[in-house]
Design goal:
The complex is a heterodimer of chains A (about 110) and B (about 120). Chain A is mainly beta. Chain A is built from no helices and 11 strands. The chains are: A mainly beta (about 110), B mainly beta (about 120). Chains A and B meet through strand 4, strand 5 and strand 9 of A and strand 5, strand 9 and strand 10 of B.
Chain lengths: ~110, ~120
């Protein structure tokens, strides 16, 4: 059983559309990270959220940590083909242990 | 510099071979990790070293043997692997301190392992 569930699993959209990816759990996390991974490469850290209710913006990407620190969302505005990749959330509970979500494969068509 | 390096990038080995994967970071991080990732799946944690001591072993078979010679280096020794062990092996590091930054993991590019 996955501790963190991501939805949707797959998303195929046109360039310029907006999208939201969700990362949900029944467990509380000390922090939540979001990564993007290209095929055959390691995940690249996008953001870390630590405080319940925290919102962080990175250009067209907006990340939110739920008030209860059990869930998070990633919203992309005006998606571009360069946003294509596997998006992974990961939660930290015990010190130095991270639990990964199931992943969301995003394809942005030009 | 947030770079974690891994060698080799690709490795093909037979079931009777012995090989090693190497990982290096120079960010002063005190926690280092090995993950295994199968195609279209998220990374699965294998081992965690904290301050050069093995702190987490996720019930990994003994044919995988980790080693942390110093705070910058992490090895994964492989022996008598099975074809189902073929995967992308990822190394990661994090500061390992009780601070916000301790929650950030930085990954290497991975080693694509094929067991024949």
């Amino acid at each position: 059983t996955q501790l963190l569930e991501q939805s949707p699993q797959f998303l195929s959209i046109q360039e310029g559309e907006n999208l939201t990816v969700y990362c949900n759990s029944s467990s509380v996390f000390s922090s939540l990270q979001w990564y993007r991974q290209e095929p055959g490469e390691g995940p690249v850290l996008l953001v870390t959220v630590v405080t319940g209710g925290e919102v962080k913006k990175l250009k067209r990407l907006t990340f939110q940590f739920g008030d209860a620190r059990k869930d998070s969302s990633l919203h992309i505005t005006a998606a571009q083909p360069g946003d294509t990749g596997l998006y992974l959330c990961a939660g930290a509970r015990a010190f130095n242990k991270f639990y990964f979500g199931s992943g969301t494969k995003l394809n942005v068509k030009p | 510099d947030t770079e974690v390096t891994q060698t080799p990038k690709h490795l093909v080995m037979g079931m009777t071979n012995k090989k090693s994967l190497k990982c290096e970071q120079h960010m002063g991080h005190r926690a280092m990790y090995w993950y295994k990732q199968k195609a279209k799946k998220p990374p699965e944690l294998m081992f965690v070293y904290s301050y050069e001591k093995l702190s987490i072993n996720e019930s990994v078979p003994s044919r995988f043997s980790p080693e942390c010679p110093n705070s910058s280096l992490l090895n994964l020794h492989l022996h008598a692997l099975q074809p189902e062990d073929s995967a992308l092996y990822l190394c990661a590091s994090s500061p390992g301190l009780a601070a916000r930054e301790s929650y950030e993991q930085y990954f290497g590019p991975g080693t694509r392992l094929t067991v024949t």
